[in-house]
Amino acid sequence: MERADLNGSEFAVIRIGDGQCFYENSVKYCNGPLRPETVYCIKLRTYTEHDYLDSLCSDQFLTGGKAKIAKNAFIPLTVAMTPFCLFVAVIKLLHYFFTKKINRNYQRTFSEPPEIKDTPKFITDFDLSSCTTLSDTRNNMATNSVTSSEDEVTAAASQTEKYECWWRHSGMESINVGDLFLQPAKLYTKEEIKKLCSGHVITDLKIVGDLPPAVTEFAPLVTTLCIQWLTNINSLEYLSQLTHLHTLYVSHSKLGTLPEVIPKMESLTKLHLQFCDLHTLPDSLSQLTHLHTLVVSGNKLGTLPEVISKMESLTELHLMGCDLHTLPDSLSQLTHLHTLDVSDNTLGTLPEMIPKMESLTVLNLMGCGLHTLPDSLSQLTHLHTLDVSRSKLGTLPEVIPKMESLTKLRLMGCDLHALPDRQDTLVIYCLLLCKHIKYHT
């Protein structure tokens, strides 16, 4: 084997067919000399740190008095005595681009050669000790092959790249949207996903890591998408091509700011942005006029973003653990809101605007450090579920018996000493932490 320099790029030249044939009776492998009047093709096996990948078989060539090459030969015959060295030069360039530009663990892939009259013999072991120098014509050939080799590398990467995901397709049983987080993700290639779907359409998809460009190929009609542990925010640009998406979950990802593509997804009805390191929300979010569920739990907002009060279509708002100390009066403008979760925020006292939100049916004040509840809470005549767990109440506030629509009250860890007489319609959830409760008869 000799090394040569072509425009600053080093590659090797290997001549095939010299030396002794180590397997005289072999029908598949021979290191030379090649058999006369026999059809051959060449495969390249390129090694990386963790694995190797076999290339597709080259076009066939026929040994004999005058070398015959297939009509669409991969390497034109420019020098009669050294055709194989030209091809090997291209091989080494391919090897360079594989190891330089693709840093992934490939699985073994094998491709069968085209069917011909005589079965081709694959050459996998080369005699590297017998190589010749390059001629001027080889230089031209190596230069022309660079562009095509890059295209082949990209195509190979697309076929072998694996995505950590879980999905539900149209042929599977339905699943609760909330359970999508819990499904175990596994590694699949694009082709494996298509094969396992058997023609069915993917409707629910969970991706662990960055959103791949191939999602527009194997899940173009997805309606519910969950993305966890995102590292490249720019990968979210492919969301704009998922025009059927109505539910988007992004969690445990360091977004910092909301990507511009999300407010442009006008088909969204549910948006979950949990633990995404967000500190505010842009005014452009109000463009989502069909959005009825917004979850921004686990983000250190500090104050409620003004845009939320402008999102009049909201029916559910979840602000758990957002480091809020109060809520603005403008929140009462959400006249269609029926579920409000402000749990695990250090409110201390109930914000004055909450009793004004007459459409509320579910109110979660768990872990808000409340010492009591004001009488004005009885104005919530449609409220049926109230959670004041992990509060510092001591005794049950007098307003509770006056809330006639209330059917479910959660008091876990409130260290209560007594409950009101009205237990006929009030269902108490206290668990073992409410050990001090005494019931009236």
Question: What would you say this structure looks like, in words?
Answer:
With about 450 residues, this protein is an alpha/beta fold. Among the domains are: about 1-160, no CATH class; about 160-255, no CATH class. It is built from four helices and 21 strands. Strands 10-9-11-12-13-14-15-16-17-18-19-20-21 form a 13-stranded mixed β-sheet. Strands 7-6-3-8 form a four-stranded mixed β-sheet, with no helix packed on it. Strand 1 (about 1-5) and strand 2 form a beta hairpin. Helix 1 packs across helix 2 (about 135-160). It is elongated. Residues about 1-15, about 20-30, about 65-80, about 100-135, about 140-150 and about 430-440 have low confidence and may be disordered.
Helix content: 10-25%
Count of individual beta strands:
21
**Sheet with most strands: strand arrangement:** 10-9-11-12-13-14-15-16-17-18-19-20-21
Low-confidence spans: 1-13, 20-30, 66-81, 102-135, 141-148, 429-441
How far apart lie the N and C ends? 97 Å
Please identify the oligomeric state. Answer: single chain
- Helix count, per DSSP? 4
Assess the beta-strand content as a share of residues.
15-25%
Mean pLDDT: 76
Structural class: alpha/beta
Radius of gyration: 34 Å
Q: Which of globular, elongated, flat, extended, rod-shaped describes the shape? A: elongated
Order of helices and strands: EEEEEEEHEHEEHEHEEEEEEEEEE
Main pleated sheet: 13 strands, mixed
Topology:
Blueprint: E1 2-6, E2 9-13, E3 39-42, E4 45-47, E5 52-54, E6 61-62, E7 68-69, H1 83-101, E8 121-123, H2 136-160, E9 162-169, E10 186-189, H3 190-197, E11 202-208, H4 215-218, E12 224-228, E13 247-251, E14 270-274, E15 293-295, E16 316-318, E17 339-341, E18 362-364, E19 385-387, E20 408-410, E21 427-429
Helix pairs in contact: 1-2
Transmembrane segments: 74-98
Organism: Bugula neritina (Brown bryozoan)
Keywords: Leucine-rich repeat, Membrane, Repeat, Transmembrane, Transmembrane helix
